[in-house]
């Protein structure tokens, strides 16, 4: 078949996808009992040689329960009544997951508050303290 694009310069071979059709639960009448329309998609991350460095740990975090101990991502799609649409949905969800994991988070650079922002904060605290002070009983005398 071919490659499935994930992001710029990154794609997976569709031969790495293991797709199985199973009976779905939910609406569909008698059709749901006769036809295997739900899709179980399995993608072995260990077999994907072109996976960028650092992506495997981000993928494991994002996938959560959908990734097995062996590094296989399992996606179950049963939203639609046809095999073709469920298959497309499962592949789209896998692509979205991989695309999100492919983006490395930007490093946070520590910054210090500016002198002006510190002064504004302290003025706000003083103003608030004055308002609260006025809520008490008036001094006797």
Short characterization:
This protein has 141 residues and is of the alpha+beta class.
What does this structure look like?
The protein has one domain (3-102): Double Stranded RNA Binding Domain, CATH 3.30.160. Helices cover 38% and strands 20% of the residues. The chain has helices at 31-34, 55-63, 83-102, 115-134; strands at residues 3-7, 10-13, 17-22, 38-44, 72-77. The strands form two sheets. A three-stranded antiparallel β-sheet has the order 3-4-5, with helices on one face. A two-stranded antiparallel sheet has the order 1-2. A hairpin with a 2-residue loop joins strand 1 (3-7) and strand 2. The chain is elongated. The model has no long low-confidence stretch (mean pLDDT 84). The protein has 141 residues and is of the alpha+beta class.
For the termini, the CA-CA separation is 92 Å
Overall morphology: elongated
Mean pLDDT: 84
Kindly report the spatial arrangement of strands forming the biggest sheet.
Answer: 3-4-5
User: Which structural class best describes the helix and strand composition?
Assistant: alpha+beta
Q: With helices defined by DSSP (H or I, 4 residues minimum), what is the helix count?
A: 4
Question: Strand count, sense and closure of the main sheet?
Answer: 3 strands, antiparallel
Detail the poorly predicted runs. none
